[in-house]
Amino acid sequence: MTGKATRGECTVCGKVLGKRALTRHLQAHFATGGRGRAVTVVHLLVDTRHGSEYWMHLMARGDGTLKDLDSFLREEWLECCGHMSQFKIGGRAYTSDPEFSRWGEGDLDVALADVLGVGEEFIHEYDFGSTTTLRLRVMGTWQGVAGRLPVTLLARNEPPERPCGVCGRPADVVCVACYEGPHGTVLCDACAEGHHCDEDYRLPVVNSPRCGVCGYTGTAW
Q1: What is the C-alpha to C-alpha distance for residues 71 and 194, in angstroms, rounded to an integer?
Q2: Which helix (H) or strand (E) holds 13?
Q3: pTM score, two decimals?
């Protein structure tokens, strides 16, 4: 499911911009500061690859952990069946499974400020069967005022256009039994009524790179 570049809305002021423009826009907001105790703040850009239509800008507290970031990514984009996940940072894996940690891998109880520097690019993998791989980049770090939550959403892509493969109207479901593309056939509810595959193979169209994968239903956007 690929298409034209998407735009997103800044959660601070409501302005709608593209992914790159939002990087500069959000950092201008951060530069204004605020009241409260200054902590290390990390600006993260999350997507799947260059030109991806799915992306998020995040603000994370430096004293938050990889576990906090993993939990946020699961809640917003990934969680379907409690699969394992891991980060790969600087040649080292940090995994959600304690058993793997005992085998020499790192666990997720690591402060972000201890492993992430400006310009750092790393990946997050969820589900080692039908893997969804995210790319994360540190767009900036500074001493500033962050929210109480360890990770805060600053901007997110608007839902990509998904035309029904039959009539062209906005699609509602993905039939994962039909592989006319990487994530199956997309259909509106009306056209899905006459579709030949069993209803059990239909998943909702959602604003996530995990759309049409495993049993992911997410929140319909």
Answers
A1: 38
A2: none
A3: 0.90
Compute the distance between CA of residue 123 and CA of residue 215 in angstroms, rounded to an integer: 22
Please give the pLDDT value at position 1.
46
> Which of 65, 20, 22 shows the shortest CA–CA distance to 42?
65
Burial class (CB in 10 A: 0-12, 13-18, 19+), 14: exposed
CATH 3.10.290.30 corresponds to the domain 7-156: yes
CB within 8 Å of 173: residues ≥ 6 apart: 186, 187, 188, 189, 192, 202, 203, 204, 205
Secondary structure letter of residue 142 according to DSSP = E
**Extents of the domains making up the chain:** 7-156, 173-204
Coil vs helix vs strand at 82: coil
By C-alpha distance, which of 117, 153, 155, 156 is closest to 137? 117
In terms of Cα–Cα distance, which of 48, 38, 40, 46 is closest to 22? 46
Residue 189 token pair: 């509810």
Question: What H or E segment, with its residue span, contains residue 183?
Answer: none
**What was the pLDDT predicted at 87?**
95
Distance CA 190, CA 86 (A): 39
